[in-house]
Design brief:
The structure holds two protein chains of two kinds. Chain A is mainly α. Chain A contains 19 helices and six strands. In chain A, strand 5 and strand 6 form a beta hairpin. Chain B is about 50% helix and about 20% strand. In chain B, helix 9 packs antiparallel against helix 20, helix 9 packs parallel to helix 21 and helix 21 crosses helix 22. Chain B is elongated and about 120 Å long.
């Protein structure tokens, strides 16, 4: 089988699997978030935590619940990382340094999973399981909850700013969606050869006669939610390039599938949640187009890409696993940056220059293609609001999306949202590149060095978590800078989205008429894609011109 | 349509007047509410300082063109305001102080006592009149203040305000009692109670409106402003962070180039034209003789979902007209025509005259020795008695039941055929009038039925079709019964009707539509319309209406033409479309500007970026200058469009969007490539570039 045929084959298999399962999961999601009934285990949880799952929260209460819950998560995780040496299953690991624990705690609570450390060399099993894996579940469920709250903003009429109950949304997201799929996913991964045990490291003697410690652990269970929740934090430093995490092309494809499953399903469910299925299909279409183009460009660049070495070798294999090859690595890279996952199965530092540009751009889109669980959906809906604002004006009406008018207040929230991440990326990059401590971490000279910094800050601010590599980030400077980027990049948008949801929920519904701009037809879909590309392009082109674009043109 | 404005000055004249005003508008404190232009001005100061410290052709050119950019922006606003200036001047003439005859006594006294015209008066200057004062105005005198006629009836020349030269009747009580200060009484004497203090009169408000001095930002303008500010903030960040980032790559561009990049990226086009668009939109309304009390109302007009229209006078001609005669069995059509005509000869109502017109009896004189029977509410019949050959002929016409009763009382027989005709005409939306005649002592005989019908104005169906295409539902309001209303609604092509409507019904209908999330527009003139006008999102009061109605609505139509609402809706839509189109154009322009500036900016440090120089601009300096010049000139080029507004044609939203995206979105991508290249061809000839 030729490389091209194999590349097309894996994409075809992926698309087929998604087409079959996304509508099913979407239906389950709609039921999960709109059913009035609680499961027995959920009721027990609510009772234990003393929360009323039926209280319809005002957006402010909802937002405070999200912030409070997340802050508690950060503190708990920080304490766990700082005290793991005294706890069971530590495998003899020492405490993480303060700034490193600060960074890691934020990283996992914000669904970023930026890892400055090597998992197998820094964390024991307890920290991995009760710290990181727990946050892998709840940070993902938090993102989904916020997206659902926004959907309620559209579907509710004159609801006085009430957007649902965070605790119920959180618990249901974990119990009814993430846990069951993770269990199935983990079993499939184990079947396919991923490691799952609680053993201490094995010492083996290599062919060359050296001694090597092989760390096993609860890898498959963490792997499933790592992908499903678009978290991306690997058990091992090498992440999904490590043969224990991702042993075969089949597990690779399964991981890519798990990454895309919830973001697409939630977008599909959005239609039903707001009472107009066509809206969900439109969002999915835009996401698919952006991801499709990104994947195609990246695959082309890696397989036949420019540059002396790749042309001579017939492909850009540096930094890629031989068991995957260029196409599967390119697909994984596009998917992991198009979602806010950040898991990697190849070293992005070694991607071709245009390939690196594509991964950067996918993140810069604001993680909407199809984005993180929840965050991709709300990011895309906010882009749709900007589009509908311009388009609505051009048809001579006060702009409205799904029956809700986009007025001055709504626009202020959307504008702040759209401004937040670029501000973090640009200012963060400027600070890192403009200070001695920032420059100290750069490995390569010239445009590639700039790409390394730009990638790290972009990844943190957009809560992606993948690393370009090359940049030494385990320093106080980067731990703090990236930690703050992750924190603000996650929760400022969330608060703005919830405020928007509250305002929308307080509005009446304007019924669609012949003068209303339909937001589900091809014209609008093309326009939304165009707006996303133009806004992101205009924001980042100058800095991209100095880094990967300059490098591509060398 | 008439306008009171003098002939609109052409653009060159306007420019001459506006140019100096525009310069004074460049003062930084006057740019505070336009942050984008203020930013450009700050940029101009920075580049000017840079040009002074380190003179170069590029720095000087960029500085000059940045100052021009700011000036073009203020010029657009000054030109838009200039159009209203001439109008305001002619309105000011109405405000010259006159002497008023004020009736002596306190407001309280005057409110309750009887005839006021006979009371003693003082001569006072019109500017001293306050609300509640009562003045007497005689023929040839100018009405000194806005008010309501409390006594008398007069014909008033309102042409100075409305532009309509035919005098109008103003009388106490009823719906035609409002008079406007500055208009002139032609005949008779009226007593007017002042309803407005000086400085708050109708004409004052008109002046403020046409001058644009009272302009407040509308909700949608505010929302757009937020978006523009966010875009500006992004670009400020982009350029500010480029300083350290480019420093790392040893590619730090000179300050002048960074400022040029910033000005080219921020949405200067729409930023410069935004307020001009708003002022010009209000001006377009004034030109159509509509005064909007707020810009908010104009914008709401663009969003209207439901239009409530009174049947009478709006959809149909004010009066019913006779359209057919239906003779009873055995009656010659000519006999019926003669009788119908005779019974109507003395009938001065429009319905009566229309019967005479129908049978072609306009030249008939009244027979000698006739005795007229006037219509009375009790008999509900009219007609005449006259003698022919010694026998008294009594001809009557009236409502079917009344005539039937009269025929019966004389011993005459009812006619099932006539009854059938009556029912049929009613069902078809007409009004039947039955004609009967009694000759001598014989019993009265039914002659037949005259069909009176509401005549729908020409072109209404087409207008309603247009409205439907815009997505607006029309509802006809009428006092008629449901049967009649349905027939007329079908004929006129409205979407729905409200029959036997009382003012309360109207109000309830508006509330019901609004609960459903729809925006409602209506027009009205009577005092009993006031609550509905106030409740409607867009309430257009007729100028002929009462002050209560004018006060309740948020627009006044000086022509008192109810179909004007349709034009108001179009102007509202045009306003939004123009804003959206120019914003899209402005943002789309940035793509080409990047292609011009980026390769030029990093020409030395990153020479490989020259492949992005797709326009093949002659040199880096020339590329940057060309982008800045294009950015400034495009403002000037778009001023006419901002003032005129983007053309609006009624169509489905998607059709409109496709058209506007192609013209302003795709056009906005392509035009600057061509424009910058063309400017580069000229600019590259300048030595030193």
């Amino acid at each position: 089988m030729s490389a091209t045929a194999a590349a097309l084959g894996q994409v075809a298999a992926l698309v087929a699997a998604l087409v079959l399962t996304v509508p099913l999961l979407a239906r389950h999601l709609v039921h999960t978030y709109s059913s009035p009934r609680h499961l027995r285990v959920e009721r027990a949880l609510y009772r234990a935590c003393r929360v009323d799952p039926d209280a319809d929260q005002h957006w402010r209460t909802y937002a405070w619940s999200v912030l409070g819950f997340s802050l508690a998560g950060i503190v708990l995780l920080y304490v766990l990382l700082r005290t793991q040496q005294w706890l069971p299953l530590s495998l003899g690991m020492t405490a993480m340094p303060a700034e490193g624990a600060f960074n890691t705690a934020i990283s996992f609570v914000t669904n970023t999973n930026w890892q400055w450390y090597s998992g197998e060399a820094a964390l024991g099993h307890l920290a991995q399981m009760t710290g990181l894996t727990v946050q892998n579940f709840v940070s993902a469920a938090t993102g989904m909850a916020v997206a659902v709250a926004l959907a309620r903003g559209f579907s509710r009429a004159s609801a006085g700013g009430r957007v649902g109950n965070f605790w119920a949304d959180l618990v249901r997201g974990v119990v009814r969606v993430l846990l069951p799929i993770s269990v199935v996913g983990a079993l499939l991964l184990v079947l396919a050869g991923v490691v799952q045990n609680l053993d201490a490291p094995h010492a083996i003697t290599t062919l060359a006669g050296d001694t090597q410690h092989l760390t096993g652990g609860p890898v498959a269970s963490q792997e499933a939610i790592k992908e499903l929740g678009t978290n991306g934090g690997g058990f091992y430093n090498a992440n999904s390039a490590h043969p224990f995490e991702n042993p075969t092309p089949l597990t690779n494809l399964l991981q890519v599938y798990l990454i895309l499953l919830v973001p697409f399903s939630l977008a599909w469910a959005f239609g039903s949640l707001v009472g107009d299925r066509r809206q969900g299909r439109a969002v999915v279409t835009v996401m698919t187009m952006l991801l499709g183009v990104g994947t195609a460009l990246l695959t082309w660049s890696e397989m036949a890409g420019p540059g002396l070495v790749p042309s001579a070798a017939g492909g850009a294999m540096e930094g890629k696993e031989v068991r995957f090859g260029e196409a599967a690595s390119a697909l994984f890279a596009a998917v992991t940056t198009g979602t806010s996952t950040g898991a990697v199965n190849a070293m992005h530092d070694s991607l071709t220059a245009p390939g690196g540009l594509v991964t950067l751009f996918m993140m810069m889109l604001g993680e909407v293609a199809p984005g993180g669980v929840g965050s991709g959906l709300y990011g895309m809906v906010l882009l749709a609001i900007i589009t509908v604002f311009l388009a609505g004006l051009m048809v001579g009406r006060t702009p409205e999306l799904i029956g809700k008018k986009i007025g001055h207040r709504e626009m202020s929230l959307v504008a702040a949202y759209v401004l937040a991440t670029p501000a973090l990326v640009l200012v963060g990059t400027a600070v890192a590149i403009g200070t001695g401590s920032g420059r100290a971490g750069i490995q390569e000279s010239g445009p590639h060095g700039l790409s390394e910094v730009l990638y790290a800050v972009t990844s943190a601010a957009n809560n992606n978590g993948s690393a370009f590599g090359g940049l030494t980030t385990g320093t106080t400077f980067y731990d703090v800078l990236l930690g703050l980027c992750m924190l603000v990049g996650r929760f400022l948008p969330i608060v703005l989205v919830l405020a928007l949801a509250g305002r929308l929920a307080a509005q009446r519904v304007t019924p669609a008429g012949a003068g209303t701009l339909p937001t589900h037809r091809p014209l609008f879909i093309v326009l939304l894609t165009g707006v996303a590309l133009v806004i992101v392009g205009l924001t980042y082109v100058p800095v991209l011109a100095l880094a990967p674009i300059a490098e591509s043109l060398l | 349509m008439t306008t009171h404005a003098p002939v609109t000055p052409g653009l060159p004249t306007l420019l001459r007047g506006a140019a100096p005003t525009a310069v004074t508008k460049m003062r930084p404190d006057r740019l505070l509410d336009n942050p984008i232009m203020l930013l450009v001005e700050v940029g101009a100061v920075v580049t000017t300082v840079a040009a002074l410290l380190d003179p170069s052709t590029l720095a000087v050119l960029v500085s000059v063109w940045l100052w021009l950019t700011v000036w073009f922006g203020t010029l657009a606003e000054a030109v838009a305001e200039g159009r209203g200036k001439a109008q305001a001047a002619s309105l000011r003439d109405l405000q010259t102080s006159t002497t008023a005859r004020r009736v002596r006594g306190s407001a309280d006294e005057l409110a309750h006592t009887g005839p006021l015209a006979v009371r003693p008066t003082d001569e006072v200057p019109s500017t001293s009149l306050r609300v509640g004062d009562v003045v007497v105005v005689g023929p040839g005198e100018r009405i000194p203040a806005d008010g309501d006629v409390v006594e008398g009836v007069a014909s008033v020349d309102e042409s100075a305000v409305t532009g309509e030269s035919a005098p109008v009747i103003r009388e106490s009580g009823g719906d035609r009692c409002a008079v406007t200060g500055g208009t002139v009484v032609l005949s008779d004497e009226i007593v007017v109670r002042v309803s407005r203090d000086p400085g708050q009169s109708f004409v004052d408000r008109m002046i403020a409106l046409v001058e644009g001095s009272e302009r407040q930002r509308t909700p949608n303008e505010l929302a757009l402003n937020v978006l523009l500010l966010a875009l500006t903030a992004v670009f400020v960040l982009v350029v500010a962070t480029l300083w350290p980032i480019a420093g790392y790559a040893d590619a730090r561009p000179p300050v002048v180039v960074l400022v040029a990049l910033l000005v080219c990226l921020v949405p200067t086009t729409i930023g410069a034209l935004l307020s001009a668009i708003g002022i010009a939109g209000m001006d377009r309304l004034v030109r159509r003789n509509v005064l909007a009390m707020s810009g908010r109302a104009v914008e709401a007009a663009g969003d209207v979902d439901v239009l409530l229209l009174d049947k009478t006078g709006t959809i149909t001609y004010g009066n019913r007209r006779a359209t057919a005669l239906v003779p009873a069995p055995g009656v010659e059509p000519d006999d019926l025509a003669r009788a119908a005509c005779q019974s109507s000869l003395a009938d001065e109502t429009p319905e009566g005259r229309s019967i005479v017109d129908l049978v072609g009896g306009g030249d008939q004189a009244l027979p000698a020795g006739v005795e007229l029977v006037e219509f009375s509410a009790r008999t509900r019949m009219s007609g005449l008695d006259h003698e022919v050959d010694g026998r008294v002929h009594r001809v009557r016409k009236g409502a079917a039941s009344a005539v039937a009763a009269w025929v019966h009382s004389t011993g005459g027989r009812p006619s099932p055929e006539v009854d059938a005709a009556v029912t049929e005409i009613s069902a078809a939306g007409g009004t039947p009038l039955v004609v009967a005649e009694k000759v001598g002592d014989r019993p009265a005989r039914l002659l037949g039925v005259v069909r009176l019908k509401d005549v729908v104005k020409e072109g209404m169906r087409e207008r309603f079709d247009e409205l439907r295409a815009m997505g607006i539902r029309t509802v006809m309001i009428t006092g008629d019964n449901a049967l009649t209303a349905r027939a007329i609604a079908e004929e006129a092509g409205v979407d729905d009707f409200l029959a036997e409507a009382t003012p309360e019904d109207k109000l309830a209908l508006i509330r019901q539509e609004q609960e459903g999330g729809r925006l409602v527009a209506m027009c009205g003139d009577g005092t009993n319309d006031a609550p509905a006008l106030a409740q409607a999102d867009v309430g257009v009061a007729m100028n002929t209406g009462t002050s209560a109605a004018k006060e309740a609505g948020n627009m006044v139509d000086l022509d008192s033409d109810p179909t004007k609402l349709i034009e108001v809706v179009e102007i509202g839509k045009q306003l939004l479309i123009t804003r959206g189109a120019l914003t899209t154009f402005s943002v789309a322009n940035d793509v080409a500007k990047y292609f011009a500036i980026l390769p030029a900016m990093f020409a030395v440090a990153v020479p490989q970026l020259d492949v992005l120089n797709v326009m093949r601009l002659s040199s880096p300096e020339s590329a940057i200058t060309s982008a800045v010049v294009f950015n400034a000139l495009v403002i000037v080029a778009l001023v006419p469009l901002a003032l005129r507004g983007v053309r609006y044609r009624p169509a489905r939203a998607e059709v409109l969007l496709r058209h506007n995206v192609l013209v302003y979105g795709v056009g906005g991508l392509v035009v600057p490539f061509v424009g910058i290249k063309a400017i580069d061809l000229v600019v590259s000839l300048i030595p030193g570039l």
